[in-house]
């Protein structure tokens, strides 16, 4: 997994200004305070981004392949499909894409992590696991697709992490002490393209987990 040090003195852009994009910009400001950065966001978000980050180059248009290829690293928000053709073209020209999830795992490789995914029930399962761990006396952080973005908790001293991971994030997580897959049904086909790819992306959690817990009925 990449680390913030890998981004130093590189051409870096953030794509998306939702909660993940904002967390990435704050983390970059802390870890690489003199790093020039570019942000792609919607026109509705541009004014807020410029106010919050005066030194940021804010572009209120969606990047095409040529724009993406001008950067060494692009930190992409999870909701932007990794299968977009402009991403594949930019990757072929050397641009590397990462995310807040991947950067957190790169920085916190020693963390004890339970990763939870599934089409339904992952939020409830994650919250329940965190509640039980806290009841047992573990200092536990609940984050990811539920609660705070991972990069917002980059320096948290939790003893155990319970992370809810969407199908957009499972390929960027690991290592996991425990992986939990609640169930699998067709969803998010606009992002994954096909049911087969959705299932394969969800099951990437298994590759990152030392121990895997699944619903046998599935």
From TrEMBL:
It comes from Metallibacterium scheffleri. The keyword Isomerase does not apply. GO terms for molecular function: ATP binding; UDP-N-acetylmuramoylalanine-D-glutamate ligase activity. Residues 116-208 form the Mur ligase central domain. It comes from the Bacteria. GO terms for cellular component: cytoplasm. One of its GO terms (biological process) is regulation of cell shape. Pfam families: Mur_ligase_M. This is UDP-N-acetylmuramoylalanine--D-glutamate ligase. SUPFAM superfamilies: MurD-like peptide ligases, catalytic domain. Keywords: ATP-binding, Ligase, Nucleotide-binding.
